[in-house]
Specification:
Length: 574
């Protein structure tokens, strides 16, 4: 029976035998690590031949998936759970649920407690945690991992995690060699660690819940500048529900259940085909051949190719990913006035663009129309009932008239994506804005794109040469959406500091209590929906693909690009 495409809302992604740490293989030189990437463009990909696969034993249960190692298994501190193999092999310090909230249902922590002032985080490990080589997981592993992330040479660490642990008391003395360990790391007993922070770290719970612990006894002598090159990453061990069985780098890797895992032992093996976490050239070919039981994709072309394939279910999962128009509100030269500094003009632009139609026509329903705030629809942080700026060209004309808009003025519309969808989008926006009396001229940015997008203003004059810029924001936390509007942050490169917005943002970031953060976040959303400093065009999801072989699945998918509560070791395969 042909499966339907479900839309799920998320309330907030070798050698036979187990390798011991000392069994070093020749290291392969890795490519430079990619930053956390935004959702990829929906572009056509030629179908490729299916890669080699392991020979399953007769009657053996195999779950097929992707994002296996192309050159090496990536250090999991960089892209936090983006690769399926990271979630199979490693476990985070504190568990995280599918709304990206901390939990003890998963993870190494039996319990945790954040102090009222947010300056102390107490974590107690579970009994009986084991590494795949049989050694015990200890607080020594935890301390070592935390300390490594604070080292200046530790480049393979996510910025949110690094910034959080750098806030521990005594880190600088530790880095200067004055102490053996940061004074803010306290071991209460052999299972309980207390982290004392010098100041409130607003993302502390998220950082701890996305931070996988690595085996110190395997990596303690590794130069952190060369950690990815270590032979360990050709066949790593962890403490997660599956361990590496066989590896053919660039082709596939197989995984077997870890009998010592604390939360259930699977009765099936996993074969993972090699592919990037950003795109899989073989996904469609493999899925049609019955070689995909679980995978995720950011490519809508994959969804189009697989939507009618018998036995597959495709779930749409909202994630923190927004496409927007940044608005340059600074004057281009001293003494000038920038009409975009008038919120009525920004509101008019938002009303003039038919975002719903764009999502239906260009993206064939694969994206959700932007509203009056940056937070994607489906996030439990989004405030509902605010002005959505639905298509209303007459309202746009009224606002422009009130603002005294000069219809002879031409706005410079910059963009940096080169796919056909973006070209089509720019043409549609140009036409729709022209219909309300706003002239825009799209142009492709070339060269130093980040520098052109975020040029620092000088003496109140714009550093950026554009008026509107089409870009994207991929956030690990909803806090990232609005933290840019604090004093000195990127948002103030495009508009003078809004003291009201700055104050709300700093209040939100002054606490590590998630409930208090959400209360202040709601105030920011209300204020933002009126001021609309940036204009949200659409929110782009990712898609999870599962086969009919997977039964007893989770009721709701979390963001597959991060660690999530998927309990894969307890899945039932038909």
């Amino acid at each position: 029976m042909k499966k339907r495409i479900l839309s799920l809302l998320m309330a907030s992604i070798m050698v036979v035998g187990l390798a011991a740490c000392g069994n070093k293989q020749e290291a392969q030189q890795p490519a430079a690590p990619a930053p956390e990437a935004p959702a990829a463009e929906a572009e056509e990909k030629p179908e490729a031949e299916a890669p080699a696969e392991a020979e399953p034993a007769s009657g053996e249960k195999i779950l097929y998936t992707n994002t296996g190692p192309v050159e090496f298994f990536e250090v999991p501190w960089w892209n936090l759970g983006q690769y399926v193999h990271s979630k199979l092999l490693f476990e985070t310090l504190i568990g995280i649920d599918n709304d990206m909230n901390p939990t003890t249902e998963t993870g190494m922590a039996e319990s945790y407690e954040l102090s009222e002032d947010g300056l102390q985080l107490t974590i107690t490990l579970r009994d009986g945690l084991k590494w795949h080589d049989g050694q015990d997981v200890t607080l020594d592993d935890v301390v070592w991992c935390i300390e490594q992330t604070t080292l200046p040479e530790a480049g393979m660490v996510n910025n949110t995690v690094k910034a959080t642990f750098e806030g521990i008391e005594g880190v600088q003395d530790f880095l200067d060699g004055k102490t053996e360990h940061p004074s803010g790391i306290e071991l209460k007993d052999d299972k309980t660690i207390i982290l004392h922070f010098a100041s409130v770290q607003p993302s502390v719970m998220l950082a701890a819940s996305l931070f996988p612990i690595l085996p110190k006894h395997c990596l303690e002598n590794v130069d952190m500048t060369q950690i990815q090159q270590d032979p360990f990453w050709q066949k790593p061990i962890g403490s997660g529900p599956f361990m590496v069985d066989e590896v053919k780098i660039g082709e596939y890797a197989t995984f077997v259940p870890f009998e010592g895992y604390w939360d259930g032992v699977a009765d099936f093996k996993i074969q993972m085909n090699a592919s990037s976490a950003e795109s899989d050239a073989n996904l469609v070919t493999n899925a049609k051949a019955g070689l995909v039981d679980y995978a995720y994709t950011k490519m809508y072309s994959d969804v189009q190719a697989l939507r009618d394939v018998e036995g597959l279910t495709i779930d749409t999962v909202p994630v923190n990913y927004t496409r927007w128009f940044m608005v340059n509100q600074y004057p281009k030269s001293a003494g000038d006035e920038n009409p975009l500094a008038d919120k009525r003009v920004r509101q008019a632009i938002a009303y003039a663009i038919d975002k719903k139609s764009i999502c239906e026509q260009i993206f064939e329903g694969a994206a959700m129309p932007g509203t009056g705030t940056l937070t994607p629809t489906g996030s439990n942080w989004k405030v509902e009932g605010l002005e959505e700026y639905a298509y209303n060209p007459e309202k746009a004309k009224e606002l422009l008239a009130e603002a005294g808009w000069d219809s002879n003025r031409e706005l410079d519309l910059a963009y940096y994506y080169t796919d056909q969808q973006t070209v089509d989008l720019m043409a549609i926006v140009q036409q729709q804005l022209a219909e309300v009396g706003i002239k825009v001229k799209p142009r492709l940015l070339e060269g130093d794109v980040p520098g052109q997008l975020n040029a620092v203003p000088e003496n109140g004059v714009a550093g950026c040469k554009w008026d509107l810029a089409y870009g994207a924001l991929s956030a690990i936390s909803p806090l990232d959406y609005y933290s840019r509007f604090a004093d000195g942050m990127t948002g103030t490169f495009h508009a003078p500091l809004d003291e009201t917005l700055d104050g709300l943002v700093n209040e939100m970031l002054s606490t590590a209590n998630v409930e208090k953060q959400m209360e202040k976040y709601a105030e920011i959303e209300n204020y933002y929906a009126d001021e609309i400093p940036y204009i949200a065009l659409y929110y782009q999801p990712v898609w999870v693909i599962t086969s009919d072989k997977v039964a007893g699945n989770v009721s709701k998918w979390g963001n597959p690009q991060f660690y999530m509560q998927w309990d894969i070791q307890n899945w039932t395969l038909k």
